[in-house]
Write a structure and sequence with these properties.
- The chain is an alpha+beta fold.
- The protein has a single domain, classed as Beta Barrel (Porin), CATH 2.40.160.40.
- Helix content is 19%, strand content 56%.
- Strands 1, 2, 3, 4, 5, 6, 7, 8, 9, 10, 11, 12, 13 and 14 form a 14-stranded antiparallel β-sheet that branches.
- The protein is built from 2 helices and 14 strands.
Length: 298
């Protein structure tokens, strides 16, 4: 009986630590994002007010579309992404749908230097995966980049990374907290934008039964934007887990169009994914992805 009590205390302490780390990252994300959006929008409004007397050229739809292809552009945006994956589970009869909220908040540090904050909230709907169906919130992730002014078409950024689970069941992903570093390097060459974004994370505690956060992620990307604000893009999103030795690697190809409704720019994206590799019970074969991105250039 004494062993059972100790086990219960250990489990309670482990669960409490996960919750504490999750809450800490949530507060960190909110502490960054809310002031970032509020302060940056207010600052841009002040600049706009101060420059009303001087003639200004509004940013073109083509330029906005180009900046949306750049993950560390100096432009506030709110992408909402839906994706579908099939052939999941041991019998490959399951599927899932994921909804990602990915606001991008650049902070102007002066002199052309930027600090970009990208919190990501993931919701998942699972259908008949090893007999389980249900909806839930998987995790919250905070990516950030310090991006100095380079004075050339090549730019780069680096910063801290953190992720934490928002569920305690394990059905929607890892129950571990992860900490690490993000990095990106890219070139803007006329209508072309290409580069690679990635992160390395390490497990910082939590239940490892449903997967760990000892991951290496790499996303090479290529985009071509036309003068009419159409963007044709492709990327790979390779995620390698050091504990399982497995890689999930969907290849994406799609098209986007930026439109302006009144004064609100919105980009619509649609494309297909194909899993070049996956975990044994993960998504296989073809999938789909659609994104609506609200843009706040001023």
């Amino acid at each position: 009986m004494l062993c059972s009590v100790n086990d219960i205390h250990t489990l309670d302490e482990s669960t409490s630590m996960i919750r504490i780390k999750t809450i800490a990252i949530l507060y960190l994300a909110l502490a960054f994002v809310n002031p970032c959006f509020a302060a940056e929008i207010a600052a841009r409004a002040e600049v706009a007010d101060a420059s009303k007397s001087a003639p200004s050229t509004p940013i073109s739809q083509e330029e906005m579309a180009k900046q949306l292809a750049n993950p560390i552009a100096n432009m506030i945006s709110m992408p909402i992404q839906w994706s579908y994956g099939g052939k999941m589970g041991a019998d490959q009869k399951g599927s899932n749908q994921t909804l990602l909220l990915q606001p991008v908040a650049p902070i102007n540090l002066g002199g052309g230097d930027l600090f970009i904050v990208r919190p990501i909230l993931a919701g998942v709907a699972m259908n008949n995966i090893n007999g389980f169906s249900g909806n839930g919130v998987a995790n919250i992730t905070l990516e950030s980049f310090y991006a100095p002014k380079t004075g050339s078409s090549w730019i780069w950024g680096v910063g801290p990374y953190a992720t934490a689970p928002l569920n305690q069941t394990g059905n929607f992903g890892s129950l571990q907290t992860g900490l690490g570093v993000t990095g990106v390097v890219l070139n803007r060459d006329g209508p072309w934008t290409y580069g690679i974004l990635g992160y390395r994370s390490w497990s910082a505690g939590g239940n490892a039964t449903y997967g760990t956060q000892n991951n290496l992620y790499g996303q090479p990307f290529l985009a071509y934007t036309t003068k009419s604000a159409w963007t044709y893009s492709t990327n790979m999103q390779a995620l390698y887990n050091y504990d399982t030795g497995r890689t999930t690697n969907p290849l994406y190809a799609g098209v986007s169009k930026l439109e302006v409704f009144g004064k609100q720019p919105v980009q619509f994206s649609l494309g297909a994914t194909y899993y070049l590799s996956s975990t044994p019970e993960g998504p296989q074969g073809w999938g789909a992805r659609a994104t609506v991105t609200f843009v706040f250039p001023e």
